[in-house]
Design goal:
Radius of gyration of chain A: 21 Å
Order of helices and strands of chain A: HHEHEHEHEHEEHEHEHHHHEHHEEH
Number of strands of chain B: 2
Distance between the termini of chain A: 23 Å
Largest interface: A-B, 73 and 51 residues
Strand content of chain B: under 5%
Strand order of the largest sheet of chain A: 1-3-2-4-6-5-10-11-9-7-8
Number of helices of chain A: 15
Oligomer: heterodimer
Strand order of the largest sheet of chain B: 1-2
């Protein structure tokens, strides 16, 4: 078999079970693709020896009843702590950090026999929408605008994961999503990404950004692969006090493609002023495809949508300022060189000034401000009240019988790296306008590639599901994927 | 609410991030842009609405207050920038 790295997880699993290939062959194909794709800057810490060792172990245990992910080569976002392998969240402040422990999600994947090819680029501490805040430099989107050579962003914060999956450097990748960091890059690169219900995946060993919003999820070549990989990532974990004991259903078995009688809500508030006609047309096509598949399309209202981004930019920085207080130059990572007479306060201040990039510093300081005496009620408590209302908007429409909600995934296609450099920070934040509500409400959301724009760039649609019903959500996504028939791949230039 | 350079300096100090004086005006401007965006929340009627503490209603789990994974001093110190004699070492704290 040629081009083994281009297989889906399901395709590779089936080939492995039939004895048509080996994990070592799959892994070597991916390692060779990674070697040839340095221009994408997707993989930032390669682990070829570990990968081949895991692949040989999977091949030795090969059997008809091997777990679905046995021998499947994956990429892991740099936010996941992986034992003995650099894990630095795209930040200089964790330079040299090699965890002595394994995150629960990666341990779950390894328990299933998965192979880790290396760590993937990302925005620093997952704070960004373009992968431009990474200490490793920009990850690059394998897609280009027709013959135009402009380097485009793969989105963020899981930009390396998106780029690697879209360019067939790995069969699937882990991502994390605090405000849209799985779904936006998935949409920018023509792949599938799901953020499950808050509490589905353990957060233990995932470097924390905003703990009430962070969730891990898979980024894959199609919906079936997302179902397979999500299944392996989820578990109840006593080490994460918000980890659910709700049983994990068989996500792949839910993929019947039959959505007859399902009710799909179209929220009027997601029509933005000045929204591109291409995004609007894609959304309309999405509605038509789901209707043709037998679903009932209804107009709904989520009245507090407008306030989701401002609430997010209070809550997420507030939690980040608390979580990132641990980077003090004492226990791990970078410590600044001190001048004669410097005490411990200077050590903290210099270490954090050197170790954190501009966007992370900005968010830590905004978070510090909104939590400070005199402003806590006016900002932080007000934002948490608005969050209650945003969640209630969703509860109300689900109570009216809505099964899933269809929206665009992003307000535009992938933009050029550097194109937003002159914009103020709020302009970049607007990338998450369609995705951030889902994190605030703790709901599952999935981005599915649904078409190409006039310049040949992928565009995605988002489906939002009821809490703990990722099985039904993935099935609706599967029906949408089937109807959209998106098969385009980026032309190889790297 | 407008943030001046004095407030920006105070926030930087609270956050334990060294910001040079020359960088304070630009920082204050950025804060004002972001806080201006956040001000929209004042339009929302939040009368009688409880602040969200947990996105899924759940009682945090409890366990016995006992050591579960202790005796890992070497692993805990393995990544320290400066560890000596089984301790994290820092500059002198008390004169």
């Amino acid at each position: 078999m040629s081009d083994l790295n281009r297989l889906t997880i399901a395709g590779a699993r089936d080939a492995l079970r039939k004895g048509e290939t080996t994990s070592v062959a799959l892994t070597e194909a991916c390692l060779s693709a990674i070697e040839g794709a340095k221009a994408l800057n997707a993989f930032v810490h390669d682990t070829p020896e570990l990968a081949l060792e895991q692949a040989r172990a999977a091949d030795a245990k090969r059997g008809a009843d091997a777990p679905a992910l046995s021998g499947i080569p994956l990429g892991i976002k740099d936010l996941f702590c992986t034992k003995g392998v650099p894990s630095q969240a795209g930040s200089a402040i964790l330079n040299g950090f090699k965890p002595e422990y394994e995150s629960t999600v990666t341990q779950n994947l390894f328990d299933q026999g998965a192979v880790m090819l290396g760590k993937l680029n990302m925005d620093e501490f997952a704070m960004g929408s373009s992968n431009e805040t990474s200490i490793y430099g920009n990850a690059v989107n394998p897609w280009r605008r027709g013959d135009d050579n402009t380097a485009l962003t793969p989105g963020g914060s899981s930009g390396g994961s998106a780029s690697a999956v879209a360019a067939d450097l790995c069969l699937g990748a882990t991502g994390t999503d605090t405000g849209g960091s799985i779904r936006q890059p998935a949409a920018f690169t023509g792949i599938t990404g799901i953020k499950p219900t808050y509490g589905r995946c353990s957060r233990w060993g995932i470097i924390a950004f905003a703990s009430s919003l962070d969730q891990a999820g898979p980024m894959t070549k199609d919906v079936r692969d997302a179902a397979i990989m999500l299944q392996a990532m989820c578990s109840h974990d006593p080490k994460d006090s918000t980890s659910t004991t709700t049983p994990v259903p068989d996500f792949e078995a839910a993929l019947t493609g039959d959505i007859r009688g399902k009710t799909i809500g179209i929220p009027k508030e997601y029509t933005l002023d000045g929204m591109s006609d291409e995004i609007d047309a894609l959304w309309t096509r999405g509605k038509e495809m789901l209707r043709d598949a037998g679903a009932k399309i209804v107009d709904i209202s989520l009245p507090h949508t407008k306030y989701a981004l401002p609430a997010y930019y209070v809550i997420a920085p507030a939690e980040a300022s608390s979580n990132l207080a641990r980077y003090d130059g004492v226990r791990y990572g970078h410590r600044a060189k001190l001048a004669h007479g410097d005490g411990i306060t200077e050590m903290y201040e210099k270490t954090r000034a050197e170790g954190f990039g501009a966007e992370v510093q900005r968010r830590v300081m905004i978070g510090t401000y909104v939590l400070s005496a005199g402003f806590y009620d006016a900002y932080y408590n007000r934002a948490r009240r608005v969050r209650t209302l945003i969640k209630k908007d969703f509860e109300d429409v689900f109570a009216q019988g809505v099964d899933a909600i269809l929206t665009p995934a992003t307000p535009s296609a992938a933009f050029g790296l550097g194109e937003m450099a002159a914009a103020d920070p709020v302009q970049m934040y607007l990338n998450d306008v369609f995705t951030v509500t889902v994190n605030l409400a703790g709901l599952p959301g999935v981005a599915v590639p649904a078409g190409l724009d006039r310049q040949g760039l992928p565009l995605g649609l988002q489906l939002i599901g009821r809490p703990w019903e990722e099985d039904a959500l993935l099935n609706t996504a599967y029906a949408l994927e089937t109807a959209a028939g998106f098969v385009a791949k980026p032309a190889k230039w790297w | 609410m407008s943030i001046d350079t004095t407030t920006a300096a105070r926030v930087a100090k609270l956050a334990r991030i060294k910001v040079e004086d020359a960088a304070l005006p630009a920082l204050a401007d950025e804060f004002n842009t972001i806080l201006g965006f956040i001000e929209q929340l004042n339009e929302v009627d939040i009368e009688g609405v409880e602040p969200m503490t947990s996105v899924e209603p759940m009682r945090l789990k409890r366990r016995e207050d006992v050591v579960t994974e202790g005796h890992q001093q070497a692993k805990i110190l393995a990544n320290a920038p400066d560890a000596r004699e089984g301790f994290f070492a820092v500059p002198k704290v008390v004169e």
